[in-house]
From TrEMBL:
Record domain Peptidase A1: where: 1-239
Protein name (record): Peptidase A1 domain-containing protein
Keywords of this entry: Aspartyl protease, Glycoprotein, Hydrolase, Protease
A Gene Ontology BP annotation from the UniProt entry: proteolysis
InterPro entries: Pepsin-like_plant, PEPTIDASE_A1, Peptidase_aspartic_dom_sf, Plant_Aspart_Prot_A1, TAXi_C, TAXi_N
SUPFAM superfamilies associated with the record: Acid proteases
GO molecular function: aspartic-type endopeptidase activity
Domain of life: Eukaryota
Any one cellular-component term (Gene Ontology): extracellular region
PANTHER family referenced in this protein's UniProt entry, alphabetically: ASPARTYL PROTEASE FAMILY PROTEIN (PTHR47967:SF31), OS07G0603500 PROTEIN-RELATED (PTHR47967)
Gene3D superfamilies in alphabetical order: Acid Proteases
Family label: Belongs to the peptidase A1 family.
Length: 246
């Protein structure tokens, strides 16, 4: 395709050691795929991450995209950050854990100078929170789940909060809701909790951890959710979906 730039790596390292064969840039930058193709919108729908079925990306979608959706379509503004112009920022107002609504103390200065804010990212695996926000979520989850708290299991590499669970049981976990400007992202259980076995024991982990001052909403939290980036109108819409049936 004339005028479309792409790169080919011969010596890859870091993330691209095993399963990944490359990365398609869908950010706001001039070399991103949407920018080069002059798209007015695009969407993705990630299937279950642990499953074998491929996910779908749609480019320049029709206006009636969500006409057959089963759930309520949520829409929130996309915010531009001049210090990180290629990232998609959202306005996160609060987080609910179970019965507790928690504030998200983001300063306007931190958002303006690029050291804070909330980024939605398809290339980051798990959601990360600033330390002070993560501590609020951690304490609320521990208080309401009422299972023994574990130190990091040997087969878990990231610093997740994990609990010991009864064998062959599926304990009810506190709900997790992200409150955005004009929208509510009510996450299903499988989008914020994962379960592993270690020495025959069941372990439940919260698929969120703390990292720097920016909040990142990762792709684990976006499973089976059809997410539409309306680049023309600077809006992000999402709705629950069976992504393997899209």
């Amino acid at each position: 395709m004339p005028g479309v730039a792409f790169g080919c790596g011969l010596v890859n390292y870091g993330t691209f050691k095993s399963y990944e064969s490359g990365i398609a840039g869908f950010g706001r930058g001039p070399l991103s795929l949407p920018s080069q193709l002059k798209l007015s919108n695009f969407s993705h729908c990630f299937t279950t991450i642990t499953g074998p079925k491929p996910s779908t990306i749609l480019l320049d979608l029709p206006a009636n995209l969500y006409s057959n959706s089963r759930g309520a379509v949520q829409t929130t503004p996309l915010i531009k950050n001049p210090h990180r112009p290629s990232s998609y920022y959202l306005s996160l107002k609060g987080i609910t854990v179970g019965s507790t609504r928690l504030p998200v103390p983001e300063s306007e200065f931190a958002l303006r100078n690029g050291t804070g804010g909330t980024i939605i990212d398809s290339g980051t695996a798990f959601t990360t929170l600033p330390p002070r926000v993560y501590r609020l979520v951690h304490h609320a989850f521990v208080a309401q789940l009422k299972l023994p708290l574990l130190s990091r299991p040997s087969n878990v590499t990231d610093p997740f909060t994990c609990f010991s669970a009864p064998r062959r049981a599926k304990p009810v976990v506190p709900k997790l809701v992200l409150h955005l400007e004009g929208a509510t992202m009510n996450l299903p259980r499988e989008n914020y909790v994962f379960e592993i076995k270690e020495a025959g024991n069941s372990i439940i982990c919260l698929a969120i951890y703390e990292f720097d001052e920016k909040t990142r909403i990762g792709n684990f939290q976006q499973q089976n959710m059809h997410v539409l980036y309306d680049l023309k109108n600077n809006k992000l819409s999402f709705v629950p979906a069976r992504c393997d049936k899209l």
